[in-house]
Specification:
This protein is mostly helical. 75% of the residues lie in helices and 0% in strands. It contains ten helices and no strands. Helix 1 crosses helix 5 and helix 2 packs across helix 3. The longest helix has 27 residues. The radius of gyration is 18 Å and the shape is elongated. The relative contact order is 0.11.
């Protein structure tokens, strides 16, 4: 519930990385640098000294904000989760007039994201692949993100009138994750279009009126 309210705040501009006092500015710069470097190159490839340089802060200030790299990684993943889900929800809210439109809007947003020059796949799958076996914090952050996405898609399935929204929501989540991974590996955003077509088939099978 706390994270849902945080996502809403980010989506409406009432919270997130852009706000805060001047005292928060170094922390924001550090997180901005961490998000770019960790997402572009991986967590283990980036050292704290490089982060300090990219953020334009002293090493003392860096460690004052984040006592360890593990603390910074956890904060990066939490903010990434809030921003990612807020961007998706905002796009769907703006573009969708009906539940059917909402589902299409999800995959249209994915297509736009996949086509971005800095797209490197799912930050949470990437982080889990790097550190999930040795860092419970990273594994938990990845699971929470995927669980929140599943909850969101299950809500869309419920709005569509699916008799078993948990089942349809899970199927849609598999399509979303499959599209993200395929787009990252192939370098093409077309996976979003194919996933949207598959989603329409699933919805037609699950929601079509009997008789």
């Amino acid at each position: 519930m706390r994270q849902d309210k945080a996502v809403e705040a980010v989506a409406t501009g009432d919270g997130g990385a852009g706000g805060g006092s001047a005292a928060d500015e170094p922390r924001t710069r550090i997180l901005d640098a961490a998000e770019k470097l960790f997402y572009d190159r991986g967590i283990q490839a980036v050292g704290m000294d490089e982060l300090r340089t990219a953020a334009g802060v002293s090493l003392k200030r860096l460690y004052g904000c984040f006592p360890s790299k593990s603390d910074l990684v956890a904060a990066y993943l939490e903010r990434r989760d809030l921003r990612w889900r807020a961007a998706l929800a905002a796009h769907v809210g703006e573009r969708a007039a009906t539940p059917e439109d909402s589902l299409s809007a999800v995959f249209d947003w994915l297509h736009t994201w996949f086509a971005a020059p800095d797209f490197r796949g799912c930050a949470f799958i990437n982080s889990f692949g790097e550190l999930g076996a040795t860092s419970e914090a990273v594994a938990s952050a990845a699971r929470r993100h995927k669980e929140a996405l599943l909850d969101y898609l299950t809500g869309l399935a419920r709005d569509l009138g699916a008799p078993e929204p948990d089942v349809l929501g899970g199927q849609l989540a598999l399509l979303v994750d499959g599209a993200i991974t395929t787009a990252a590996l192939s370098g093409s955003p077309d996976a979003a279009r194919r996933a949207r077509q598959a989603a329409r088939v699933l919805v037609a099978a699950e929601v079509s009126p009997a008789g």
